[in-house]
Amino acid sequence: MNGLxxxxxxxxxxxxxxxxxxxxxxxxxxxxxxxxxxxxVERKVERTLREYDMIEQGDKLLVALSGGKDSSALxxxxxxxxxxxxxxxxxIDLGIEGLSEQCRLKAEELASQEGVELEVVELRDFLxxxxxxxxxxxxKTCSPCGLARRYILNYYGCLRGATKIATGHNLDDxxxxxxxxxxxxxxxxxxxxxxxxxxxxxxxxxRIKPLIELTDFELKAYVDIKALPYSPAQCPFxxxxxxxxxxxxxxxxxSMYPSFKHTFLKTHVKRVSPLLSPLLASRATDRRSCARxxxxxxxxxxxxxxxxxxxxxx
Length: 314
Ligand code: AMP
Ligand code: ZN
Prior knowledge:
The chain is an alpha/beta fold. It has two domains: 39-280, HUPs (Rossmann fold), CATH 3.40.50; 283-314, no CATH class. The chain is 49% helix and 11% strand. It contains twelve helices and ten strands. The protein has helices at residues 34-51, 69-81, 100-114, 123-127, 131-137, 142-159, 171-183, 187-190, 216-225, 241-256, 260-283, 303-313; strands at 23-25, 30-32, 60-64, 86-93, 118-122, 164-166, 196-197, 206-208, 288-289, 296-297. The protein has a six-stranded mixed β-sheet with strand order 5-4-3-6-8-7, with helices on both faces. Strand 7 and strand 8 (206-208) form a beta hairpin. Helix 1 crosses helix 9, helix 2 packs across helix 9 (216-225) and helix 7 (171-183) crosses helix 10. It is globular and about 65 Å long. Bound molecules: adenosine monophosphate and zinc ion (ZN). Residues 64-66, 70-71, 90-92, 94, 149, 167-169, 173 line the site of adenosine monophosphate.
């Protein structure tokens, strides 16, 4: 039980007091009907967008649409809250057998339903091989996959004149990563995890996480109630197995201490990050442009160009 679990016999909705409640949000001490829950989620995203100035005048968003529940909810909610914002969507076909085809179809279905432009790019065109092919040679595909996805989002964002990249990272995703960083004492890395990451290089766009205050449970309920197209399939390479273990641990704490998750995030963003940000800025290594492709790099070549070299030589 994660403290947010759906419970039967919840009585009337705590908001409208008319309809029957369909789910319980323990941390908010509320039971809501579908209609009020949908409004609750959308208002929450609206508040997050406002609180962190996520969308500014003149912005053009590149929405990273994976075909999963979170980014499907993200696109639908942004379109509802800011119908006039300029946006374009990008789906990266990772070439994972048994997964990518379904994700791509769902992303296409949603984009056409929302009436937005969607560009689909194949990871293979950047890396020279798909993730399934990569897995045949290497055991670990997660870090090259993550690196390539970040690179491609920045690359296309710049190419299409976007000012920001919007991703569907949610509260559980962020806390699972933060947990490990805090336990390891890697606070300078933890500080980089925030609702808005400002651009540090012309080819590394600012990133926003409008769903950062919503949980997996809330987003799954939202896309199901709204019947949005999404793929529930999980990556067969266990990309998320470690993160899922952390999520379970944090869910267990939340079930004993409702609102632990929101408190953890608030403490991180409002208390720890402001203290450590100056230290991070003073330690910032020189941010260069990759000698080969011009994207952000720490050394002569960026991570993606180095990865491609490595794959070519193997
Ligand atoms: P994940 O790392 O799979 O939890 O994904 C986090 C966010 O990154 C998603 O909500 C999307 O916004 C974005 N993303 C992940 N995979 C893809 C993909 N294949 N294509 C486009 N965006 C993606
Ligand atoms: Zn490069």
